[in-house]
Amino acid sequence: MFDAKRLLEDFLGGGNSGGGAGYGKAGTFAAGAATGGLVGLLLGSKKAKKIGGSLLGYGGAAVLGGLAYRAWQNHQNRSTAARSAEPAALTSRSAAAAATRPLPAPADSPFDPGAGTAADGQPFALALIRVMIAAAKADGHIDAEEQSRLFARINELQLDAEAKAFVFDELGRDTDLDTIAALPRGPEQAAEIWLAARLAIDPDDAREKAYIAALAAKLNLPADLVKHLDAQAGAAVA
């Protein structure tokens, strides 16, 4: 079995020229998009241009783990008085909190992308890749020509045959919301899966907005938690 966490980092960073049997040094989610790496090709030029700001300083997995963990804490610790606050005020407070570098998720916790398995028994890191690919395809922008360019780019990356096959399979797989929603093993993983999908879509696109709303419903995420996750993601890519 290939190193799932390494593949996640390489996927988020868009790959680079590292050598050996590994996948090279991990980049960042924003850098991978901005430099035309795999994640940039996957998201498309319109989405990639929206990725930047705070994410430039984070490792890819730290974005998913740290931001999901912070949103979960904010949701859990929200006081009774705060529950009556207006959504705009909630978003403002969460966005301000997200402007600082998030603390890493506790090692080996459900929020650690490199730890544990998803409900299908596969490493959780692979579930996150599957989620991001499915979300990026939600607007239908990955046509046959674009998929060919993605395949060519993947072939340039220093991935072993098994890792490449996994990504190829996911790119070619029909998007099935029920399958994606069945991936998390517990509510913490569900929150991180939704955040991964949110980072891979353009929230201004009606189709993609509908996709993540439907995903939140299928994951049974509380509305308050979704607001915190959305605020964290929005501030991180601003």
What is the succession of H and E elements?
HHHHHHHHHHHHH
Number of helices: 13
How many domains, in number, for the residues?
A: 1
The largest β sheet comes out as: none
Strand and helix map with partners:
Elements lengths: L3 H10 L15 H6 L3 H6 L1 H4 L11 H18 L9 H12 L25 H13 L7 H13 L4 H12 L4 H5 L5 H13 L6 H13 L4 H14 L2
Helix pairs in contact: 1-7, 5-11, 5-13, 6-13, 7-11, 8-9, 11-13
What does this structure look like?
The structure is a single chain. The chain has 238 residues and is mostly helical. The protein has one domain (4-236). The protein is built from 13 helices and no strands. The chain has helices spanning 4-13, 29-34, 38-43, 45-48, 60-77, 87-98, 124-136, 144-156, 161-172, 177-181, 187-199, 206-218, 223-236. It starts with a helix and ends with a helix.
Short description:
By secondary structure, the chain is mainly α. It has 13 helices and no strands.
Offer a few descriptive terms.
238 residues; mainly alpha; 13 helices; 0% strand
